[in-house]
Specification:
196 residues, alpha+beta, Peptide Deformylase, 5-stranded antiparallel sheet, 4 helices, 27% helix, Peptide_deformylase_sf, protein biosynthesis, hydrolase, EC 3.5.1.88, Peptide deformylase
Length: 196
């Protein structure tokens, strides 16, 4: 089932999410709905706070990036096969020299800005079977994970922008929170109690 995505301005997006246990009710169904919601909005990642749940769950599927002609065949192949679920994740280490990449967010439609992040991460998490894993990622895969991880920490990519950039997009952000935006997927707006 496609769920409405929570728009910028909703307090759930600024709250640090809580860990869950293997007994979390209907987890399989939730994960299935999250993938369906993400694909329905043409996203490459989705975190539970973006559907209104303050829990430490996010998922990614970097396949859309695999069509980028500027990448090597090896990079495209890595991106094509990368689809994962992260539960109760903790980034243990971020390494390397920060690099800029234009990011967007399903909760902040029509806003895209360059964000600086470190290129390599080490992350500890539980998979969908609640098996603990510690893995290293780099490049675009690391970036997508960092972006979704920020969501479970109550951080949005707009929080990482300079104060000048923040001022320049303030009007757009206000319009998003009021639902004054045209989008082709379901959203829930904080300033309106209705759903689209």
């Amino acid at each position: 089932m496609i769920l409405p995505i929570v728009a910028y301005g909703d307090p759930v997006l600024k709250r640090k999410a809580k860990e869950i246990t293997p007994e979390y009710p209907k987890l399989d169904e939730l994960l299935e709905n999250m993938f369906e919601t993400m694909y329905g909005a043409y996203g490459v990642g989705l975190a539970a706070p973006q559907i209104g749940l303050p829990i430490r769950v996010f998922l990614v599927d970097t396949e859309p990036f695999a069509e980028d002609e500027d990448l090597s065949e090896d990079e495209r192949n890595l991106l094509k096969g990368f689809k994962k679920i992260f539960i109760n994740a903790t980034i243990l280490e971020e390494e390397g020299d920060e690099w800029a990449f234009t990011e967007g967010c399903l909760s902040i439609p029509d806003v895209r800005e360059d964000v600086f992040r470190k290129p390599q991460i080490t992350i500890e998490y539980f998979d969908e079977n609640f098996e603990k894993r510690t893995e290293k990622y780099e490049g675009l895969i690391a970036r997508v994970i960092q972006h979704e991880y920020d969501h479970i920490e109550g951080v949005l990519f707009t929080d990482k922008l300079s104060s000048l950039k923040k001022r320049l997009i303030k009007g757009k952000l206000n319009n998003i929170s009021k639902g004054k935006i045209n989008i082709d997927y379901r959203m829930r707006f904080p300033d309106q109690k209705k759903r689209r």
